[in-house]
Amino acid sequence: MAPPTLLYRRNGGRFGVVIAAVVLPIAAWVAHNFWDRPLKPEARALLEAQPQPIPDADNLFLGLLAFSLQGNEPAHERGRAALRAYEALPAGERPGTYAEALGRNIALFDAGPARLCSPGNQAGAYACLQMSREDRPALQGLVQHVAPLMQRYRELQTYPDYADPRVPTMDEPAPDVAPLRISLLNLAVLTWTIDAGQDGPAMAELVRSAELWRRVLSGSDVGLIEKTMAVRALTAHLMFASEWLRERPAGTDLPLDALLEPYSEDELSLASAFTKEFRLQAALWEQLSDPGNPVVQADFPDASAWWYPLLMKRNDTIHRGYRDLQTLLEIERAGCTEVGAQLAEIKARGVDRGPAWYEYFYNPIGRVLHGMSGVGTQLVHLGRQCNLLALQRMLGLQRELHRRGTAAQSMAGQVQALAARYTDPNSGDAFVYDAEARTLGFEFLGPTQELMTPMPLSSP
């Protein structure tokens, strides 16, 4: 056997190649991941933007925040006090609700056996008046039980503007859904008002209630959850108007001009909501880029300052979110037909697998996290806005057909003749008329069942 020194001389070159093959790629990867990319000025500007200030006495946001909080002061004062109490606490000690921060109880809302009017994502679409009559005893008991909240809902209608004054953080409490549920209960009260022969007061209240939610839609720094609540409230109002119109004799009309005032760009746009989501994600990436953060320690208990930053890049992850934001805004600007095309492409392509394998050589943790919240997960919200617009236009078409007293045998021809005036924004074509069922429908955008029920044109 040859001595070790001779073996080394014979194979030293081979050992060097093996070591180089192992060490050099690792050294190259470390060098590649040693630096984080600089943050683009336009992305930084979004992250540093401050909320739009408006007087508290005008701010519907504060009234909604304080809706369920006990207290006799004006809603905006109660909301501001809750916000101050919450923000005064250290970040790690903030509770899950504003009520806890202020040390007050909340008024509970439990519908019990009573059926509330459908906001489009549950059973009962276009049957609000019918259900409100069938469930009247239970609903009247509920109205009496939550009478203070019903009064507060009417007070909310007096606030002329909406602006969220908070700087987005990951721990802010979820919005209170009680105002939405009270708005649905309020539609039951309007049903009984109509049945009492008071169409004028009922229509006036329906318009005031809808305008409240339109102010939320068009507000400043509105979040996605708040936008969704507003869309669902307005969906219920439009369906209520459709059912009310359907019950009236053919050839008559309802004064629906205010409800049919076309939604503005500000009302339909999700630019503000998507920007807020971008800022919330950036705050999360900030936390997860710190190896000492409790969330990071839970998954990587041995994370340390020397190797963890090689795997998680704050700026690169934020930049990818900013790029998604710009993509979403481009799709929104292209219109509802493009939203539909993008949703169809995602459905055909299947689950998004995230970046290509070779992209994980840089910022692997950040890119895995970013892949969980890409463009595809946000497109459904654009689809919801388009569906609301389609429903409003379809109600306008129903109204036109109804006041013309259009006979069943000529309905299909009238729908086509009115297509230039009443176009389905999602398809770019006429609304779909089902002659056998006597219903109108539009091309629905999104994976859920919201608004899938066709609009009946005649009472059962």
Numbering strands along the chain, what is their spatial order in the largest sheet?
1-2-3
Radius of gyration (CA) equals 28 Å
Shape: globular
Mean pLDDT: 87
Q: Can you write the helix and strand succession as a string? A: HHHHHHHHHHHHHHHHHHHHEEE
The major beta sheet can be summarized as: 3 strands, antiparallel
The percentage of residues in β strands lies in under 5%
Query: Low-confidence parts, pLDDT < 50 over ≥5 residues?
Result: none
Walk me through what this model shows.
The chain is mostly helical. Helix content is 57%, strand content 2%. It has 20 helices and three strands. The protein has a three-stranded antiparallel sheet. Helix 7 crosses helix 9, helix 13 runs antiparallel to helix 16 (314-334) and helix 16 runs parallel beside helix 18 (364-371). It starts with a helix and ends with a strand. 35% of the residues are buried. The mean pLDDT is 87.
